[in-house]
Design a protein that fits this description.
The protein is built from eleven helices and 13 strands. By secondary structure, it is an alpha/beta fold. A nine-stranded mixed β-sheet has the order 4-5-6-8-7-9-10-11-12, sandwiched between helices. A two-stranded parallel sheet has the order 1-13. The longest helix has 13 residues.
Length: about 325
């Protein structure tokens, strides 16, 4: 009961935080490709599951005990001529977790596996939940498959959001699906990207998963201890999600704070942050950049405003950065 009360308090306080996450960017030939990548032995789906025709992708053929509730998003919007988007659930540990995936029409038309971005959303619990545009806008801009998790304990999913605790396994599971199950996913040059809390999740995942080859972090948390003390709302939410303060369990906060182990990040990183961001301080991005540039290829895009989130121009900048660093 105590934990439930804390969650309710946290959710109420973070309504404004979640709304801020939406700031910035808003507009708002047949064949089997399963064996295109040598050695990429993926499971599920039959040999005819990939393409129904050049403009239709049969993602529903991946329905299984592990992947369920697949629903094609049929809404017409600014990205419809660039990608197809699906909502689905997947098993992580024993929990059914909500997710989205957007697949470029160019991938469907060419009948070839496509490179991927795993996008980590911001917010916590049910605040800042993914919508269809979150994956679509990245997919349309970069020409890559974009897949994203709601995380456990969010959007009706089972489990509890621990803000970088066991929920980190929900991210790893999506990478597993891309590598072992989704035969249309090319693991070459696999990129992870994240906004705010999602930036923290991206740093943590990249630290331990060698399948990730590059990273984009936007308005990212890189020092959770600083965030705890800088923002009263964050303090309340973090105490509820993690169950303690930094004084009570410093290790729990440090393991979520890339600034303390930046030397373990050895892949190219693109940092995007606004100087007057009132939710996650610009200083966190500055300190992280200075640390990362000593050990890896790091680019820093600075905005002279207070936006906590994605600017419209960030999408083209990310696409250009990915192309420049493509392997």
């Amino acid at each position: 009961m105590i934990f439930s009360a804390r969650k309710i308090i946290s959710s109420i306080i973070l309504i404004s935080f979640a709304l801020c996450l939406q700031t910035g960017c808003s507009d708002n030939n047949s064949g089997d490709i399963s064996n295109v990548i040598p050695g990429n032995e993926k499971t599920s789906a039959s040999s005819s599951d990939i393409i129904a025709d050049k403009n239709d992708f049969d993602f529903t053929s991946y329905e299984s005990p592990e992947i369920s509730g697949i629903e094609k998003i049929s809404e017409e919007n600014a990205f419809s001529d660039k990608c197809q988007t699906f909502r689905f659930s997947y098993l992580s540990d024993s929990y059914n977790i909500g997710a989205y995936i957007s697949i470029p029409l160019s991938c469907i038309e060419k009948q070839e596996p496509c490179r991927c971005i795993l996008y980590n959303r911001g917010g916590n619990d049910h605040m800042g939940l993914l919508g269809i545009h979150d994956t679509e806008k990245f997919c349309a801009a970069t020409g890559r498959i974009v897949i994203a998790s709601q995380y456990r304990g969010a959007g009706g999913a089972q489990g509890e959001d621990q803000f970088g605790g066991d929920d980190l396994r929900d991210v790893a599971k999506l990478i597993d699906l891309c590598e072992k199950t989704f035969r249309f996913a090319d693991m070459t040059d696999f990129c992870i990207a994240g906004l705010s809390r999602g930036g923290m999740m991206s740093y943590m995942t990249a630290k331990q998963d060698s399948r990730i080859k590059k990273m984009v972090v936007i308005s990212a948390v890189s020092d959770l201890i600083s965030s705890y003390y800088d923002n009263t709302d964050m303090e309340t939410m973090l105490h509820a999600a993690i169950g303690c303060s930094p004084e009570e369990a410093m290790d729990e906060y440090k393991k979520r704070s890339a600034v303390y182990w930046s030397e373990k990040i050895r892949i190219p990183v693109l940092i995007i942050h606004s100087r007057y961001d009132s939710l996650i301080s610009f200083e966190q991005a500055e300190v992280m950049y200075e640390k990362l540039r000593k050990t890896t290829d790091c680019t820093f895009i600075r905005h002279e405003d207070n936006v906590h989130g994605i600017h419209r121009e960030d999408l083209s900048a990310i696409a250009e950065w990915l192309e420049k660093h493509e392997k």
